[in-house]
Design a protein that fits this description.
heterotrimer, A mainly alpha (296), B alpha+beta (377), C mainly alpha (274), B: alpha+beta, Rossmann fold, OB fold (Dihydrolipoamide Acetyltransferase, E2P), 2 domains, six-stranded antiparallel beta sheet, elongated, C: MetI-like fold, 14 helices
Chain lengths: 296, 377, 274
């Protein structure tokens, strides 16, 4: 045997520290330090490029409480979250159930089609729908007219009373397939013997779905709901591209409002305060996710 | 010389003390088997010898060289794992040669070493196969081959046969014995299977709660266990242990009494330990094969048969003795296990007479130490 | 009787899934089809098929620099994914080997990073980038993309490494590997599935990332696809066919790649639920 003299045998601490350090450095610079800066900056009034920082205490937060658009933004986030859960997780579950046990031919093709929008960037998705929904050249308006109905006068995205719901529809167009695939993976992990046993006990079809399938994929549904919720609070690209938060701030969400305040109006401290609120929501949801996955 | 000397070894995980001070010497060329129930520290001890765990205290020397602080690869040991641990992305010869390649050995020398090991284990035909194409027995053979290729001073085995089926296990047991004879290498082997320990070992080390309970040849340990723990661990079915009372003590002779049986007087072989007095509770150990025919055994009792296992060349009878219950045996509910070295035509529900000779008893004190051995041991 | 009811049910189920597929397909088909139309026919008859198969709109869109955007996206995505896989792989392996509270604490910290959305730290990230003079550089995207890809990838690798029998690493160390060598020579070669999963997931995410790219890149020559195609809109005011042609150029390659490798996409994204 070759003999290499070595000093005291390490328990690997140095190696492991070296292997961990790049990840920790990157995370610190781009995640943890920014979190600290956002907390700090939310207590000041300052411009993006100005060196002049004025301590204002909690007044940025007070300002948010009195800012009507902040509340609209928060409400819109909640609309998107709840609506996405109903549409994306709901339809995703139904589609997954059908693909799993309902039909046997063409599953892969159908799954591929429905899942495909996931790989298109939200910007492209937004632009495509912007044209489809355009009041002048959009095919949807013509289609609605051809059916003898009256489309909204200002266009689907131009009408403040429905625009956020239209955005929700576009988001669901993009992500329902993703939910379907996620839930389908859970369904396919349910042992087939379970269905055979249930059939012997007299549970088939819908009853089997209710009593066997849903409980078996409970955990994956929780994950799906949480992913959708987090996604609903992070939504930015789609709204920035389709409506820019308009008309008249009707489709503003927290992230677009932060962007607008910081980079258009120069209210950087105020943007930081809204960021902290968004951060708090995200961390709370992350904690819920951790707890639910621990239990799983 | 490739002996292994362990002195004052201690190892803890947080508050849990896995090894509480072990001294052990394994002679050059010896086959030592470490046994004990799970959690006794046998695997930790082996892994500490290998260098996969660091020692908190104490020292390990291989071939007279202190290796306590050496890297695993520099200790002159090779290890065979229970789950084989073959590298799935290398073929058989790649697996066997990896250690030598890491050491930077010349290619022709590596090829020769692999060929030699493959020849010893009869796996020459499989050298180009991927591990997943091999059966369990073949995988374990490759794992052993990997160890042989490195020509270590000491072979370490961590329950290498536990993943194999019973028939294969018996075959590999014999083969490992042959391998040890051929190579003449020092081998340390960990198992929880007392049969493997009894059949393969030059010496057995029984571990219990991180301490060495007893070291000796298989027969020494079987015949003269230091206490109930070793007595119960070796031998299958395990020893029956029946509570009894010490009714008389005259110097180095003691008389014990079991309900329903005549008193039995035995020599006090071990005087070390607590001083036995009249009225003390003691335990009587009887090996399943130590019962005899009622005619010439001196004492007899009735046994109501509950289960009969016909094994062909022997018969195991599980039943309830009349008048007393057992404290420990392979049967349940205070029953006894009796082994007849022949076929026996009995049925559950039947009651038969069993003989018991006082000269076949072990007597343990209530601390579990053996105080009296059977006559012929 | 029973079979007929079964057939009716099957028909309804196919109808449902088929309708959903159609809803997904139609906008994509429209995008490709309308890209061939003229501006006039877009206004006059929005629903009609194009009159001719002219690639003139595509040439116009390409002229804006879709090709350059694509190269930029490829570069940024490739570099980021390489950094993510290497950095996360090392970290996850170290964590999977570390016993005790230190490893646990670091793991929890990294998981906590998963909960923090870049949208909530836009201002400081921009400040850091601009302070470091990194605005309008590829590094300003690669580094934060890597950072935000690490938590998920570490979680994925960590679970994967924990499933490895630890004896493999131990056998390697008995064979003379250091811990790091055991990682490189034994663990990494066996991590193909996990690496592919992570790479696909992060590629999709980074290829489509918008908000950071929007903040950091203002010079056209550096823009990635999502930011670049937004320029189409400004460039061709009301030249919708050209915009759609640009969108087709930007999305079709990835869609085709997805259809070809859909099995792996599905597997890697479905792994999220575990």
């Amino acid at each position: 045997m070759p003999q290499r003299p070595r000093t005291a045998r390490s328990d690997g601490r140095l190696t492991y520290a070296a292997m961990l350090s790049p990840a920790i450095v990157l995370l610190s610079i781009f995640v943890f330090v920014p979190v600290a800066l956002v907390l700090y900056g939310s207590l000041f009034r300052f411009g993006l490029t100005s060196a002049e920082w004025t301590f204002v205490g909690l007044s940025n937060y007070v300002r948010a409480m009195g800012d009507g658009v902040f509340w609209i933004a928060l409400r819109n986030n909640i609309i998107i979250v709840v609506g996405s859960i109903v549409l994306q997780v709901g339809f995703g579950t139904l589609l997954a159930a059908v693909l799993d046990r309902g039909i046997t031919v063409g599953n892969t093709v159908l799954r591929t089609i429905i899942f495909a929008p996931m790989v298109i960037s939200s910007v492209a998705v937004g632009l495509i729908w912007l044209i489809i929904l355009d009041p002048n050249v959009g095919p949807l308006v013509s289609l609605v007219k051809a059916m003898g109905l009256t489309p909204p006068r200002l266009g689907f995205l131009g009408d403040p009373s429905i625009s956020i719901w239209v955005v929700l529809g576009i988001a669901s167009w993009q992500y329902t397939g993703f939910m379907m695939v996620l839930i389908l993976a859970g369904l396919q992990a349910v042992p087939k013997e379970l269905y055979q046993a249930a059939a012997l006990d007299g549970a088939t079809g819908l009853r089997a779905f209710w009593h066997i399938t849903l409980p078996a994929i409970r955990n994956i549904l929780i994950v799906a709901v949480l992913i959708t919720t987090v996604g609903g609070f992070k939504v930015f690209d789609l709204i920035f591209v389709t409506t820019g938060g308009g008309p008249a701030n009707a489709t503003q969400v927290l992230s677009t409002w932060i962007y607008f305040q910081a980079f258009n109006l120069g209210n950087t401290g105020y943007a930081d305060a809204i960021s902290v609120i968004l951060l708090a929501i995200a961390v709370l949801l992350g904690w819920a996710q951790l707890k639910s996955s621990r239990r799983a | 010389m490739s002996d292994v000397k362990i002195s004052g070894l201690r190892k803890s995980y947080g508050r849990f003390e896995a090894i509480k001070g072990v001294d052990l010497t394994v002679a050059d060329g010896e086959f030592v088997v470490m046994v004990g129930p799970s959690g006794c520290g046998k695997s930790t001890l082996l892994r500490t010898i290998a260098g996969l765990e660091g020692a908190d205290e104490g020292a390990i020397a291989v071939g007279g060289r202190d290796v306590t602080h050496e890297e695993p690869a520099d200790r002159g040991v090779a290890m065979v794992f229970q789950n084989y641990a073959l590298y799935p992305h290398m073929n058989v010869s790649g697996n066997m040669s990896f250690g030598l390649r890491m050491a930077g050995m010349a290619k022709d020398k590596i090829a020769a070493a692999v060929e030699r090991a493959a020849g010893i284990l009869n796996i020459g035909d499989h050298l180009d196969k991927q591990p997943k194409a091999l059966s369990g027995g073949q995988k374990q053979r490759v794992a052993i081959g990997r160890a042989i290729t490195r020509q270590p001073e000491v072979f370490l085995f961590d329950e290498p046969l536990s993943n194999l089926d019973a028939a294969l296990r018996t075959k590999m047991r014999v083969e490992l014995g042959r391998l040890h004879a051929d190579l003449g290498a020092t081998m340390i082997y960990v198992t929880h299977d007392q049969t493997e320990a009894m059949t393969m070992a030059d010496r057995i080390v029984v571990l219990r709660d991180g301490l060495v309970e007893q070291v000796g040849s298989p027969r020494e340990l079987y015949n003269r266990p230091v206490g109930r723990f070793v007595a119960g661990f070796l031998g299958s079915p395990r020893m029956n242990v029946v509570p009894a009372r010490l009714t008389r003590r005259e110097g180095d002779r003691i008389t014990v009494s079991i309900d329903g049986l005549d008193d039995m007087t035995r020599p006090l072989d071990v005087t070390k330990g607590k001083d036995l007095r009249e009225g003390d509770t003691v335990f009587v150990g009887i090996r399943p094969e130590a019962f005899g025919p009622p005619e010439d055994s001196g004492r007899r009792f009735a046994l109501k048969i509950r289960v009969v296992e016909n094994l062909g060349r022997e018969t195991l009878v599980y039943g309830t003795p009349q008048g007393f219950v057992s404290d420990e045996s392979d049967a349940e509910d205070g029953d006894l296990v009796i082994q007849f070295a022949r076929q026996k035509d009995v049925r559950p529900g039947q009651t038969i007479d069993i003989g018991l000779s006082a000269s076949a008893l072990y007597i343990f004190d209530d601390a579990g130490l053996t105080r009296s051995f059977p006559n012929d041991h | 009787m029973n079979t007929r009811r079964l057939n009716a049910t099957t028909l309804v189920l196919y109808g449902f899934v088929g309708l959903m597929s159609l809803i997904v397909l139609l906008p994509v088909i429209y995008m490709i089809m309308a890209a061939f139309k003229t501006r006039t026919s877009m206004f006059v008859s929005p629903l009609a098929l194009p009159e001719s198969l002219s690639f003139e709109t595509f040439e116009r869109a390409w002229g804006v620099g879709v090709g350059g955007f694509m190269v930029n996206s490829l570069l940024v995505t490739f570099l980021s994914v390489v950094v993510i896989v290497i950095v996360s792989g090392m970290a996850a392996y170290a964590l999977s080997q570390m016993r005790g509270w230190v490893g646990q604490a670091i793991y929890l910290m990294i998981v906590a990073g998963f909960a923090i959305p870049v949208q909530a730290v836009l201002v400081p990230v921009f400040q850091i980038m601009s302070g470091a003079g990194l605005l309008n550089s590829r590094l300003a995207l690669v580094l934060p993309y890597a950072a935000y890809g690490i938590p998920f990838t570490v979680i994925l690798f960590y679970a994967f490494f924990l499933d490895f029998p630890k004896e493999l690493e131990e056998a390697a160390r008995l064979d003379g590997c250091s811990r790091f060598q055991a990682f490189v020579r034994v663990i990494l070669p066996l991590s193909g599935p996990a690496i592919a999963s992570a790479a696909i997931f992060q590629s999709v995410f980074i290829w489509n990332e918008f908000i950071l790219a929007l903040l950091v890149l203002t010079r056209r020559g550096l823009k990635t696809l999502p930011v670049g195609i937004l320029d189409l809109q400004g460039e061709f005011t009301s030249d919708w066919p050209a915009v759609l042609a640009g969108l087709t150029l930007a999305t079709l390659p990835l869609l085709i790649l997805f259809v070809l490798a859909q099995k792996y996409f599905v597997r890697s994204l479905a792994g999220l639920g575990k």
